[in-house]
Design brief:
The chain is an alpha+beta fold. Helix content is 47%, strand content 15%. A 3-stranded antiparallel beta sheet has the order 1-3-2. Helix 2 packs across helix 3.
Length: 93
């Protein structure tokens, strides 16, 4: 994907990139992240303790925030710096 975008960027500067999803890997990964976030949110609501997820890329953190945005029982926030940024799922007050 990186190489394709590099070549396209040289040929068509300023245009958007492409996403390559080999064997639906990206789609499955997104589903796994959202599913885990929802399971962790249920645990937070049940026990009342915040849960910190593993470090994630900005795109993966965004998936978690969006997946739980309408859940009235929890709130999410990002914490940490650089490659160590994580999402914390907290009970909503």
């Amino acid at each position: 994907q990186y190489l394709v975008n590099l070549m396209l960027g040289q040929r068509y500067p300023g245009k958007g990139g492409v996403t390559i999803d080999a064997e639906h890997y990206r789609h499955r990964r997104e589903e796994e992240i959202v599913s885990k976030a929802m399971r962790m949110a249920e645990s937070v609501k049940e026990y009342g303790d915040p849960i910190t997820l593993e470090p994630m890329t900005p795109a993966d953190r965004r998936l978690v925030h969006l997946a739980l945005a309408e859940d009235e029982g929890v709130v999410t926030e990002s914490t940490g710096d650089g490659e160590n940024r994580k999402v914390v799922i907290l009970p909503r007050d």
